[in-house]
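Render this sequence as a predicted structure.
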Amino acid sequence: MAKKLFFGMLLSMALFGCANNKPSGENNNADAANAQTEDVVKIGYIDSLSSNAQPLPALVYPAGSPVAKWGKLTVGKNAKGIRCMCDEKGNPIQLRGMSTHGLQWAGVANVTEGNIKALRNEWNCNVFRYALYVDEEGGLAYNPQFRNDLLEKVVKWTADNGIYLLIDWHVHRPGDPNAPQYRCHPSNGRDLAGDFFTYCSRRYANQKHIIYEVCNEPNMINDHGVEWETGIKPYCEEMLGIIRANDNAIVVCGTPWWSSCPEHVIGKEVADKDGKPYENVMYTFHFYSASHNDGKQFDKDGNLPPTVRPEDFFSKIKGVLGELPIFVTEWGTTEASGWHDFRADLSDKWLDILDGDNAGEQVVSWCNWSFSAEGGVCGALKWNTGKISPMDPEILTESGQYVFKRLHDKKYGKQ
């Protein structure tokens, strides 16, 4: 949600919650040219270089590292019988780490071998989220090096440090994962999503540390929110079919309204063509603390913000966590644009919920947005740099200081 380009999402969701109404403040006319308008999705081609990608040999993980200890992750059940993220032996675990900002902006400056090592050794991260925008200002559609060069390096760098890599197909604008910009790109007719997951699932099939997020934040198409059953679910099932042909890694599916409404999935989970539920699947929930709360939270001066939400997100998600395996692949300490209102108090409430204070006693993995100086006060860094180790505390923003401290919470220790 806290992205370089921001089109009134905060106001729209404040007024309408998860309804499929036209949100006030959303620049629908400007986005219409980027939205899928046909009922039938046109699918492009998959490049032979992707369909014939040669698998990397299994990489070696450092002894005692999270991946060496937990292995290839699965979706199992906790002591209460609730599905959740587990290690390869079926024991519930929690991943905690950082997400990049858009690589096409200054966010790529922080994706270095030294910084990933620092995130592991100095920040205590055990997961790194690689946010790959597609059609925005020089994303993957215009810079294949993000896949062909940088991703290959990040796969190795995270393996070298024994931490998990969440590869995020960053659906944002357009908000429909079925839009031509993703499925039949106007520049070359390629099915970029299918091509990407064909390549990755073949190339990284032997790696234990890879997790896939197949659509970041499905949101708007023309005047309406992209619905789970008719838009997001069929797309996720198609990507799962591609990935499962090569790999059984955990796949995380986006949910409606900028991944803030996973309750739409309950009773309608992804399944294969024979109707058999896919295994090792999780669903996203994204929150920004000053926007997604109980709808009654006051600002620091004791005033209600002008766009108070009518929905109690705390209560809703506590219930959802008794029904679905959730991965909070993105969250921020601020309001939803990322530019204002750092709220440590509300962030504490959210992290307590993710630590198991919920109906399913599910311990939920998370990635903070973002390991960058981009995107406002939710960025963890005051400036983008290729080197942060040994880390100077002066580089951290107020949000960065907060997240750094939470990553070192004594009850977790070194993971």
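Summary. Residues 9-407 form a domain with the TIM Barrel fold (CATH 3.20.20.80). The longest strand covers residues 281-288.
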